[in-house]
Write a structure and sequence with these properties.
There is one protein chain. The chain is mainly α. The protein has helices at about 1-30, 45-70, 70-80, 85-100, 105-115, 120-140, 145-175, 185-205, 210-235, 250-265, 265-275, 280, 285-295, 300-305, 305-355, 365-390, 395-415, 415-425, 425-445.
Length: about 450
């Protein structure tokens, strides 16, 4: 009995020391002192913000690491090429992954809205993504050719659907648990840390120490584990019960959300800018195709350079995510605008060099991909931060679902770029995408500043 009484103060002291450590780490990362202010979350959530901030970073780091290891634009396209999958299946990887993660959101947002705590939706979606990657791994190990290709595509579709639920839930949870002006820092830091994992993977690919197929299969297994672990981490988040009004059926949701679109001009401009900036997401396979066409070896040089391409993509995330995240907390509008201009420059240069046969150099294509992926990271961070800060708590889930569903339709329409590439070549497609990215950046300049109180 006495022993128990003596242990309790020590336990309380350890908990107090742990809380103090969490607070110090949070202050170092977020750049706030003891007088930090929570601007749009309640006091109870503000007290838990340091621990929640680190939980967000940990869960997103695991999830984003898995994303990089299962990149449809580079890793899965190489895998399907290696196992002899049809070109038609390979061409569907990016549209299925991107559109599948966005289109269902209009129809799932209402059901998610009825849940007072949405962290469980994100955790469940993360777990399903991990299981879907295990399915991709099984297809690659035990099947080949068209059967393996279609099986992997089906698993990727399941992954995308799970990701769509995560997307709707996450922005709402982020808005409830992290104060405005620190949200971009949390997502940006996670992007930078997770990029280190992908860089190690890329360096191993470049080194040739491990046979490339074995390394890719191992990466899939690690990605599956990372998604499952991220689910376990995220459920530890301290999330207060939120409003559950507005959880209606899909038709009612669609009608109500359409009202937001027709009445909110800033939402219209945001969706327009984001739609044009999808060029930065769709372009990488065409950049690889342009490199293949210039090399004249049927794509052998381009796919042999998989490690360099993955390295370029990961370095772009590592070096730019933190910068974009901090800038997004000051002006997400400018992040979208600058990203569009940078992406347009990279695509324009690649398209012109491709037409002139200037992509034969093995170094130049990864450099151009690096620049494009810097822009892509800016688009991702800018659009996420802008949407969360633009919408109030009552509209946040609706705006997310509406914009993501419309962008999903745009991405499905992006399949037309494959037809254009067949008729005119990938370099022409890249020039068209450069124009779209430029227009998207210019449209973003017309957005309002939603980071109140900042003079960016």
């Amino acid at each position: 009995m006495c022993s128990t009484l003596q242990e309790n103060p020590r336990e309380d002291e350890r908990m107090s020391e742990h809380s103090a450590t969490v607070e110090r780490v949070f202050q170092q990362i977020a750049g706030d002192g003891d007088d930090r202010v929570c601007r749009d979350i309640p006091d109870s959530a503000c007290r838990e913000e340091p621990r929640n901030f680190l939980t967000h970073v940990a869960a997103l780091t695991l999830s984003k690491s898995a994303d990089g290891l299962v990149d449809p634009k580079l890793v899965l396209s190489w895998l399907l090429t290696s196992i002899g999958a049809p070109a038609a299946v390979i061409g569907l990887l990016v549209p299925v992954r991107e559109a599948g993660a966005l289109l269902p959101q209009l129809f799932t947002a209402g059901a998610i809205r009825r849940l007072p705590r949405r962290k469980y939706v994100w955790a469940a979606g993360s777990a399903v993504q991990g299981l879907a990657v295990l399915g991709i791994l099984a297809c690659a190990l035990f099947l080949d050719g068209a059967t393996a290709g279609w099986g992997i595509l089906a698993c990727l579709a399941v992954l995308a659907l799970a990701r769509s639920a995560c997307s709707v839930a996450y922005k709402d949870v982020l808005g409830k648990t992290i104060s405005k002006s620190r949200r971009g820092s949390a997502t940006g830091l996670a992007g930078s840390i997770s990029a280190a994992t992908v860089i190690v993977f890329a360096l191993l690919l470049v080194s040739g120490w491990i046979e490339r197929m074995d390394l890719v299969l191992a990466a899939l297994a690690i990605a599956a584990g990372a998604w499952l672990l991220s689910a376990a981490v995220f459920v530890t988040l301290e999330e207060e019960a939120g409003a559950t009004e507005g959880g209606a059926n899909a038709l009612d949701v669609a009608r109500d959300y359409w009202g937001y679109l027709t009445s909110d001009r800033q939402l219209q401009r945001f969706i327009l800018s984001r739609a044009l900036l999808t060029a930065t997401a769709l372009a990488p396979p065409f950049m690889v195709a342009a490199w293949s066409a210039s090399s004249g070896d049927g794509g052998g040089q381009a796919y042999a350079g998989l490690g360099f391409l993955v390295l370029a993509s990961a370095l772009a995330s590592l070096l730019s995510s933190w910068f974009w995240g901090r800038l997004a907390d000051r002006s997400s509008r400018k992040v979208l605008a600058y990203s569009g201009l940078v992406g347009a420059a990279a695509l324009l240069a690649t398209g012109l060099l491709g037409l002139g046969g200037g992509l034969r150099d093995a170094v130049l294509p990864p450099v151009l991909l690096f620049i494009l992926m810097v822009a892509y990271q800016g688009v991702r961070l800018g659009r996420s931060t802008h949407l969360v800060d633009m919408a109030g708590e009552e509209q946040r889930a609706a705006y997310t679902a509406l914009s993501n569903t419309l962008i999903g339709l745009v991405l499905l329409g992006g399949g037309a770029f494959s037809l254009l590439a067949s008729a005119t070549g990938p370099s022409t497609v890249l020039l068209v995408m450069a124009g779209l990215a430029l227009l998207g950046g210019l449209a973003a300049f017309g957005l309002e500043e939603v980071q109140q109180g900042e003079d960016a």
